[in-house]
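Q: What residues go here?
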């Protein structure tokens, strides 16, 4: 049990360091994706019975984590989505459509 606690502490420490370089949303998405990978490994190693709900749940997590990664790393895709959604990605919360662009993460300088 001491080894497991040490690994947990090392993981928590590593996450604090990584948060200096990525957003909390990116970290949370990665953690969720890693949980799906752990489930898949558990199925293989422990011969866990696979149900349709398990398959759908793990597939959704993987698909949406990958979608987040694609959207996060491809600014042209964000700009295209933003043009269709009337600039909602660039506006500060509560700012009406058509007003000045806020200083959010996707705002143009």
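A:
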């Amino acid at each position: 049990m001491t080894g497991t606690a040490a690994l947990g502490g090392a993981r928590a420490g590593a996450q604090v360091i990584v948060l200096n370089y990525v957003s909390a949303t990116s970290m949370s998405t990665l953690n969720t994706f890693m949980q799906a990978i752990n489930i898949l490994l558990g199925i293989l190693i422990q011969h866990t019975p696979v149900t349709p709900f398990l398959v759908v749940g793990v597939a959704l997590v993987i698909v949406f984590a990958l979608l987040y990664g694609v959207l996060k790393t491809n600014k042209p895709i964000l700009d295209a989505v933003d043009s269709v959604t009337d600039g909602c990605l660039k506006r500060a919360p509560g700012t009406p459509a058509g007003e000045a662009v806020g200083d959010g993460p996707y705002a143009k300088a």
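A: Context that may help when evaluating the design: The helical segments are 2-18, 24-46, 52-73, 75-84. The mean pLDDT is 79.
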